[in-house]
Structure prediction request, 93 residues.
Amino acid sequence: MVRHTPGPWHVSGFSDDIRAADEVLVGSAWLVDNDEERKQANARLIAAAPELLAACEVLVEEATGPNGPEPTTWTQMIAKQAREIIMKARGEK
Prediction:
């Protein structure tokens, strides 16, 4: 499986480019209607993706691991959603 460009990512200056820590271009946010506020919001969300993925991975491990909390409907639901997000991000779904 091909791994994504390592994070952290950031929005480059005043552009809509998303760059890795080594300044490699990861992507760019754009919209047909040129709504600058939405483009910047999309760019920030994309830039947060590696950290969001890592947080989901930790959440699943902590919620379902041997030292995790007592299983509840809530923890099972959250862990299930996080597993689905991880699969989507990895292209497994």
